[in-house]
Amino acid sequence: MSAPPLTVAVQGIAFWASRLPGWEIARAVIRGSEAPPPTAAGRPAAALLAPTERRRAPDTVALALEVAQRACEAAGESPQNLPSVFASTHGDLAISDYMCSTLVATPTLISPIKFHNSVHNAAAGYWSIGAGSYAAYTALSAFRYSFAAGLLEAAAQVACDQRSVLYVAFDIEAKGALAGVAPSSGLLGVALVLGLQSRPGMPRLRLQLDAAENAQATPARSPAADVVAKNALAPCLPFFESLASERGAGADSVVLELSQRTVLRIAFEAA
Question: What is the distance between the alpha carbons of residues 45 and 51, in angstroms, rounded to a whole number?
Answer without folding.
Answer: 10
